[in-house]
Specification:
Layout lengths: L2 H7 L4 H20 L5 H15 L38 E9 L2 E9 L9 E7 L6 H7 L4 H8 L2 E5 L9 H4 L11 H4 L7 H15 L2 E11 L1 H12 L6 E5 L16 E6 L17 H11 L5 E6 L2 E6 L7 E6 L27 H10 L5
Parallel strand pairs: 3-4, 3-5, 5-6, 6-7, 7-10
Antiparallel strand pairs: 1-2, 2-4, 8-9, 9-10
Amino acid sequence: MSPQVLQAALGGNQAVIDCLVGLFGLVRVLEFKGSLPTSGEMDQIGGCFPLLTDGTAAAPTTAPTITAPTITAPSVALLPITCPPDEPLQAGLSERTVEVGDRVREYLLYVPLGHDPSEPAPVVFIAHGRGGTAEGAATTKNYGWNALADRDGWFLVYPQAVIPNITNPAMAALAQTGVNNWNIYGGVLDSSYSDHDFFAAVREDLATLTCINPARNYFTGMSGGGYMSTDVACRLAVEFAAVAPVAGIIPPMGCPTLVPVPMTGFYGLLDETNPYEGEAGFRPSVDEAMSQWADRNGCGDYSETTIGMTTRLEWDCPSGGETVLYVAADAGHTWPGRQPTPESATEEVISQDISATEVIWEFFARHSRD
């Protein structure tokens, strides 16, 4: 519920409005953490009771009519296949902008070499981590996406996060302020904008440029981009055919549809940034998060195979929501198989047992919303 709706419902009582907005934020935080409120948070909850019971929050004489929003599962045919240009786009990386509400958002688009403008192409969204940039994900991180895109004729999107305006202290506890960050779980950091709307605008922009297959959108990302990947699986389950979070996995919470979402995750047991065992009062362990995703995807038991120091867990998923997790015993907060760069000396250990990029690509190729 927005502050504007609260103002209408409570007759402009600002003290009560501020209190309730804070409570709504706290509820989101508790849902995100998966824990009971602390004593300080209980004090915050209790502090609202006098305002709500002493008559200062009396309803206005004429109560306004408020219509609650209805959540509906979007259709995969939302963007029909169209092939507007007759000639191919210039290959390579380019900057693009889209208008989303009152904001101008940026993304980088990689056009594969020799793409056929008459052939509907898949699109892979690759999200950078907290404090990162689209340019870093596209160039300096050395993930190896461009070569695969050139080989198979897929398009790559590197979206750019913005700095959320985190005004609620409870929200500030979830994320570092003043840096680029993804606004996960429907605006948990900043309710004034939606990254989901941003991704929709990007897809619409692409449809005006070239021939895109709307049934073959995919999403992956590292760290905070991994968190956003799981958020996409939760809230954009129909629009994206599969996701692949790396070094950042959170459980499904409040998902508007139960459509299975194929997911393959990657994690290092030695991750010091987003620890594998979770963080008390913040998020559950990776084991628990993936177990919840497997349950949501209608999966049963899992089997294990070993690849060097990496364990591959694959759940039995008869409903079509293939669920897989790769756990590297010798790796930290890194992208498996990524080739070292000059900055690698200051990073945690990179596992070379598998190439996450190649595994993700093959995983995406198996799945479509057709």
